[in-house]
Amino acid sequence: MADKVDHAGDVKKYAAGADDKHIAAIIKHLGIAMQSADAQMVSCSSKDELETVREKWLKKKLKLTNDDKALDGAIKTVCDKMKGDKQKSRVAFYYLLAAHFDKLSAL
Fold first, then answer.
1. In terms of Cα–Cα distance, which of 91, 88, 63, 65 is closest to 76?
2. Which has the closest alpha carbon to 97: 69, 71, 60?
């Protein structure tokens, strides 16, 4: 079992006004996958991982229909925003993407 992670703190480091309800919705969506410490992080250097973020989070969960280039551009923007963190919180990463596309209400 992974150590207790302050997901809200991770998100609020980048989005000070983040709503705890939206953060909780992301955590609930990720569910059992969050039990693995590795799964709690996003690796911006992993092409496969970023493709999963695009396909499973942006397209499937947020129901975005933008072309892959636009979605990948948003993912790169979030990678750049979080570049100071060696370990990028998946919850914060997903929150920033949802906010980028104005989809927090969809959570």
1. 88
2. 71
pTM: 0.93
Residue 2 amino acid letter: A
Enumerate domains of the chain plus CATH numbers: 7-106 (1.10.238.120)
Read off the pLDDT of residues 13-66 as tens digits, 9 standing for 90 and up.
999 999 999 999 999 999 988 888 888 999 999 999 999 999 999 999 999 999
Tokens of 54: 């695009």
d(CA 19, CA 83): 23
Instruction: Please check whether residue 48 is in contact with residue 55, taking contact to mean a CB–CB distance below 8 angstroms.
Output: no
User: Residue for token digits 């997901």?
Assistant: 7
Cβ atoms of residues 88 and 43 within 8 Å: yes
> Tell me: the pLDDT tens digits for 56-67?
999 999 999 999
The pair of structure tokens assigned to 31 is 């569910």
Give the SS3 label for residue 41: strand
- Are the C-beta atoms of 97 and 105 separated by less than 8 Å? no
